[in-house]
Predict the 3D structure of the following.
Amino acid sequence: MGIKTVLFDLDGTIIDTNELIIESFKYTIERHLGYTVKPEDVTPYFGEPLPITLKRFSQDKWELMLDTYRQYNEFNHDKYTKIRKDVKEALEFMHKKGIKMGIVTSKRRELAIRGLRLFDLEKYFKVIVALEDTEKHKPNPDPILKALELLNANKEETLMVGDSPYDILCASNAGVKSVAVKWTILPFNLLEEAKPDYVINDMLEILKII
């Protein structure tokens, strides 16, 4: 069977929010815990729900930290968020070819939509499965299974594209093919250990897979 559905992670895959996320962690941890984190202290956890990551740093203050993080992140969102040129080109091509596309993210829906609208990308996606939409999150299969249900899509005809091992494992657990993006900020060996089915250097390469 050919590929008829492509699901995408959002942060670090469709839009570049790496600097935004790092600065949000730095501000939050310095304010509440009194020390400065380096990018490598937080990037391994990109892709998992924010509360889980914050609990790694403090079991006692994570709820306060969550509020601070979200306030800082939302205030600075548009300033730090960028997009790769090849992403929009690939989305436009797939859209014209009738490929069904969806977002599967651990981000809250409100901010996910804001990020897409910032670059006029919302029109390409039929569904957005966000943090609020499932009880279990990546690497559990639930977010992808929810997207497949909403799109009325078959596992055998679906790809999941992401920049973290959580995306790759989510795909594997859901029974769909996975695509790891080489422009991830994470050490790429972490994605390789999750055993993606494909690796791409830019988004246009996904067209060859399809």
Summary: The chain has ten helices and six strands. The longest strand covers residues 100-104.
